[in-house]
Amino acid sequence: MLPLLLVALGAAGALLLAGAVSAWWWCAAGPLLALTGLGARDLAQRRHSLLRNYPLVGRLPFLLEAVRPKVRESVAGGEADGRPHDRNVRALVHERAEGAEGAEAKAFHGGEHDVYGDGHEFLEPSLRPVEVPDEPPVVRVGGPDCTQPYDMALLNVSALSFGALSSNAVLALNRAAALGGFAHDTGEGGLSDHHLRGGGDLVWEIGTGYFGCRTPEGDFEAREFADKAALPEVKCVSLKVSQGASPGFGGVLPGVKVSAEIARERGVPKGVTVVSPPCHRVFSTPRELVLFVARMRELAGGKPTGFKLCVGSRREFLAVCKAMLAEGVTPDFVVVDGSEGGTGAAPPEFAAGLGTPLTEGLITVHNALVGTGLRDRVRIGAGGGVATGSDIVGRLVQGADYTNAARAMMLALGCVRARRCHTNTCPTGVATQDPYRVRALDVADKSERVRRYQRATVLGAGRIMAAMGVREPGGLTPDRLLRRVGPSSVRSYAELYEWLAPGVLLAEPPPSWAADWAAADPDVF
After folding, report:
1. How many CB atoms lie within 10 A of CB 490?
2. Is 334 helix (H, G, I), strand (E, B) or coil?
3. Which of 10, 105, 301, 355 has a CA 20 to 30 Å removed from the CA of 525?
4. 130's torsion region: left (phi>0), alpha (psi -120 to 50) or beta?
5. Distance of alpha carbon 104 from alpha carbon 100, whole angstroms
6. Other Cβ atoms closer than 10 A to 355
7. pLDDT at position 114, please?
């Protein structure tokens, strides 16, 4: 506020001098009064959180983007796998959140980078496209042991905890979910009032800290879990085994962000950095994991229950599949989190250097479930860099049933990627617990932005499928997604990857899977 205050004081001083000393002071008073009025307008408007927190000064980034687009583009850089660079993703999310039509084409073909180099992926259109459905398809989540199945949208809000995000950001996401008919994952930070007030459908995530259902000693508290899981807003329950950006590492919430409310919600001391354990206390083997998921489903009254992981060893996930077969129980869903997923709570050494990328992780989980004859009982969610309609369709081709997005949803909320999440000084009120900064995020405006972004992206996925001649996600097959692997060579995913036949691991494992299948032990990770 200091720059605006200085400008206002300067305007007042210039006015006094213009009246008492010389009319020439109007030359200074006029511009200063105009700037004061502009600053007051910044404070009053609700569209831009950055301007509400930083009147006048907050306009500098917009000015720099307008006059130095090439610098901005070069800083954003390209991605090695041929996907559009970061600037285009931000442009797409912003334009869709604003309700702009045709945003995908404008955002993803406006750059100067070579989108047709090695690694470029593209979907195969059909010479006989079909009509785009009036409403996008949904995915029924709930296996044979589930008594309250849930219809999941193709794109949902991925795990974003209250604590990492502000109260207004959480409330805006939840209201958007209610308005748009999609699900909102709570993240591992607990089930707060801000998650419940918006009326949106919730996927309650339980992490290694068991926040929201935690004993004073840090163990899982079954009674509190059952009481909260029974709330009508909670549609699914998810156990976080690991996440893409920091597999094998517990989440961190800096003490500066642990307010009295956060401390109360999580059952931790105020102002003290919260570090979640790297692994769960309630299970230590694949069999115990599967049985605990079944127990959670029973405590939740039969609501869909599953787990989220960043895939590591293929043998370990096959061990989980063997445990499912041995115990005769399956999760209702498995969410695969790619290593390209983002978080503000991971060491920089973990970023993109540990864990399996989403493409390989998805194909591994899909093949393992198909090969063990369990795929029809388990739905697969996918998260990690999902932002566009083509991202959704590509992940469905690779084995997912639905997708989740966190970074894109935050951009729709107004995040400017200042990378100050851990300092409690987020300039747009998205990732802070500072009450003054939080108040700048207008819930009504931002919830509508998120709703528009989600709907436009899912409709975009529907248009792409229709252009491919596909009416339902089930019609997408690996041969419809292609990748350039050389200057004159293009191969489909059906050729690039091995796809197992149903039940083949139980009958005669193919040579490429035989060693991992033989080594997989349901009682040892």
Report:
1. 13
2. strand
3. 301
4. beta
5. 10
6. 26
7. 44
**Element spanning 452, H or E:** helix 443-467
Q: Which residue has the tokens 């989540």?
A: 141
Is 477 in a helix, a strand, or coil? coil
Beta bridge partners of 378: none
Q: Which residues of the chain have pLDDT under 50?
A: 68-85, 105-114
**Tokens 């990627």 — which residue?**
417
The pLDDT value given to residue 105: 46
Return the closest-CA partner of residue 160 out of 450, 519, 515. Answer: 450
The DSSP H or E segment spanning 72 is: helix 69-76
Nearest-10 Cα torsion for 21, 22, 24, 25: 20
- The per-residue pLDDT of the chain, averaged, comes to 89
Q: Provide the 3-class DSSP secondary structure of residue 238.
A: strand
Burial class, 186, CB count within 10 angstroms (exposed 0-12 / middle 13-18 / buried 19+) = buried
d(CA 455, CA 345) in angstroms, rounded, equals 29
CA–CA separation, 83 and 103 (whole Å): 17
Residue 361 burial (CB < 10 Å; 0-12/13-18/19+)?
buried
**Do the bridges between strand 183-185 and strand 201-206 make them parallel or antiparallel, or are there none, so unpaired?**
parallel
What are the residues facing 14 on neighbouring strands? none
In order of their start, the domains of the chain are 1-76 (no CATH), 139-466+474-507 (3.20.20.70)
pLDDT of residue 354: 80
End-to-end CA distance of the chain: 54
Model confidence pLDDT, tens digit, residues 111-136 = 334 456 778 999 999 999 999 998 99
What is the predicted pLDDT for the residue at 67? Answer: 55
Could you count the other beta carbons within 10 Å of the beta carbon of residue 294? 18
DSSP state of 256: G
Q: For the segment 383-419, what is each residue's pLDDT rounded down to a tens digit?
A: 999 999 999 999 999 999 999 999 999 999 999 888 8
Count of Cβ atoms closer than 10 Å to residue 122 Cβ: 16
Judge contact between 200 and 176, C-beta under 8 A.
yes
For residue 250, the Cα-to-chain-centroid distance in whole angstroms is 18
Q: Are strands 305-309 and 234-240 parallel, antiparallel or unpaired?
A: parallel
Torsion 361-363-366-372 (CA) sign? negative
Residues 350 and 341: beta-carbon distance below 8 Å = no
- Could you please report the per-residue DSSP string of 351-379? TTTSS--HHHHHHHHHHHHHHTT-GGG-E
Token readout for 23 is: 């009319």
Nearest to 360 by CA among 483, 496, 495: 496
Do 7 and 35 meet the contact criterion of CB atoms below 8 Å apart? yes
